């Protein structure tokens, strides 16, 4: 039988997968968000990842109707895995998608999870849902796989078709089947691991390593700021050593690095161990908007500026450079913290989504060139900001605080 693939969740991860698989297979791209599906049917990807011409394949069906998924035999789940306010895993999306897959299951079908989860989630949380609702038995009537996604939105160099893809399966036959399935559409290396847990742990390890390393550099940046040492210059000098890994200080937000470590912390705690380094790295990265606020307030004082009469412009609202995604953006946290101290705070981002009121923040898409600001903070290194000379936008007593060391050195530009 020809494989027919159903992808559940057509967001940043699901859409590129659908586009790759439809080169060879019939793909049903299902999402519960009707407006997203209607846009995709018209050839419009609001995330600007996929061009219009690639969305009109005859093998690719966009739908919000469950019935259209019925004839699929492979289901790939790419729904969000956020956290609750108390930083514990919110598995409601993955639970709902698993229930849907379970209702659709036929004998020999395979369900593959690509959403980021803690090790054990697929087999301990998802499989019981699949079994309970379908009435089938895993590894007898249906099979399961896990393949973490490494997509890096805004990065055109490391793409789904040129970075290695990890795959795992509930038994060897499933692993081999998934190997040939992914291999048939991706030119990248497909890397088999021995168990689903290893594949889940691999993804979370990649993101934790990044979070912890950035936290370390953020901590050093706080220390060096207090000692009046230029962190960037230190990092450049240290990078001349063969085994120094260069990371930059900055804000860690988004829905991956700023979220996934909590999944492992939660899982580990349930097994009696609270990971210290991972937890404190997370705490430190969460604290950064507050720390930056303190530094800026201190510099304002040195410049003879009084917060209650100061105007501040933040450059960048999205969670990282050159993307529009503002979910869990620490620039927005920074905006909120600064707004409690300074008279006027504006956040400018011509790329970020939802230019209107989002998270109680108005993101402006144009700079009022007639207005001068006392303080400008570069918080996201969008390429487009290289066209701005922030010095021309500040008042006489004003200064620039460049979190990303984006602008050339200048006596009025401070760096984190
Ligand atoms: N975006 C990234 O850079 C990235 C990278 C690697 C891994 N991941 C992980 O992949 C997963 C998906 O992330 P994303 O960025 O694509 O999220 P996203 O929010 O862009 O897309 C998820 C989509 O799933 C849909 N959805 C929610 N519940 C559904 C359901 N029950 N059935 C069908 N569709 C449903 C949503 O409407 C949304 O369109 C997450 O676990 C994330 O951590 C994301």
General description of the model:
The protein is an alpha/beta fold. It has two domains: 4-194, Rossmann fold (3-Layer(aba) Sandwich), CATH 3.40.50.720; 209-415, Rossmann fold, CATH 3.40.50.720. The protein has helices at 14-21, 34-41, 92-104, 121-134, 172-183, 196-226, 231-238, 260-269, 276-302, 330-339, and strands spanning 4-8, 26-30, 60-63, 74-77, 110-113, 143-146, 165-169, 190-192, 311-315, 344-348, 357-358, 361-364, 373-378, 394-402, 413-415. The N and C termini lie far apart (58 Å). The relative contact order is 0.08. The structure holds nicotinamide-adenine-dinucleotide. Nicotinamide-adenine-dinucleotide (NAD) binds at residues 8-14, 30-33, 36, 78-81, 93, 96-97, 100, 115-116, 149, 151, 153, 255-256.
Summary tags:
416 residues; alpha/beta; Rossmann fold; 2 domains; eight-stranded mixed sheet; seven-stranded mixed sheet; 10 helices; 15 strands; elongated; binds nicotinamide-adenine-dinucleotide
Describe the SSE topology.
Blueprint: E1 4-8, H1 14-21, E2 26-30, H2 34-41, E3 60-63, E4 74-77, H3 92-104, E5 110-113, H4 121-134, E6 143-146, E7 165-169, H5 172-183, E8 190-192, H6 196-226, H7 231-238, H8 260-269, H9 276-302, E9 311-315, H10 330-339, E10 344-348, E11 357-358, E12 361-364, E13 373-378, E14 394-402, E15 413-415
Nicotinamide-adenine-dinucleotide (NAD) binds next to helix 3.
């Amino acid at each position: 039988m020809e494989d027919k693939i159903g992808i559940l969740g057509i967001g940043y991860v699901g859409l590129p997968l659908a586009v790759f698989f439809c080169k060879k297979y019939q793909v049903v791209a299902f999402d519960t968000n009707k407006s997203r599906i209607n846009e995709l049917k018209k050839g419009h990807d609001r995330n600007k990842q996929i061009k219009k011409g690639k969305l009109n394949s005859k093998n690719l069906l966009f739908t919000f109707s469950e019935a259209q998924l019925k004839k699929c035999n492979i289901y790939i789940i790419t729904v969000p895995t956020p956290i609750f306010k108390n930083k514990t895993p919110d598995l409601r999306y993955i639970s709902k998608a698993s229930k849907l897959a379970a209702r659709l299951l036929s004998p020999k079908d395979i369900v593959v999870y690509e959403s980021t989860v803690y090790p054990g989630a697929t087999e301990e949380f998802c499989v019981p849902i699949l079994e309970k609702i379908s009435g089938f038995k895993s590894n007898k009537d249906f099979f399961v796989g896990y393949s973490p996604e490494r997509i890096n939105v805004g990065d055109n160099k490391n793409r789904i078709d040129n970075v290695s893809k990890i795959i795992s399966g509930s038994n060897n036959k499933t692993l081999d089947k998934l190997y040939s399935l992914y291999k048939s559409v991706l030119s990248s290396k497909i890397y088999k691991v021995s168990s689903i847990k290893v594949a889940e742990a691999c993804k979370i390890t990649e993101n934790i390593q990044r979070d912890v390393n950035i936290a370390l550099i953020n901590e050093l940046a706080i220390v060096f700021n207090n000692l009046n040492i230029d962190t960037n210059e230190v990092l450049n000098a240290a990078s001349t050593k063969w085994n120094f890994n260069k990371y930059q200080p900055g804000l860690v937000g988004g829905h991956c690095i700023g979220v996934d470590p909590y999944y492992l912390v939660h899982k580990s705690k349930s097994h009696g161990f609270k990971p210290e380094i991972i937890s404190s790295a997370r705490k430190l990265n969460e604290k950064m908007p507050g720390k930056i606020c303190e530094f800026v307030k201190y510099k304002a004082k040195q410049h003879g500026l009084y917060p209650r009469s100061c105007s501040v412009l933040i450059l960048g609202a999205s969670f990282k450079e050159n993307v529009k995604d503002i979910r869990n953006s620490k620039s927005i946290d920074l905006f909120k913290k600064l707004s409690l101290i300074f008279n006027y705070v504006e956040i400018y981002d011509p790329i970020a989504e939802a230019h209107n009121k989002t998270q109680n923040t108005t993101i402006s898409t144009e700079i009022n060139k007639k207005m001068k600001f006392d303080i400008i903070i570069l918080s996201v290194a969008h390429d487009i900001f290289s066209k701005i000379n922030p010095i021309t936008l500040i008042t006489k007593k004003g200064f620039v605080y460049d979190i990303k060391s984006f602008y050339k050195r200048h006596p009025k530009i401070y760096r984190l």
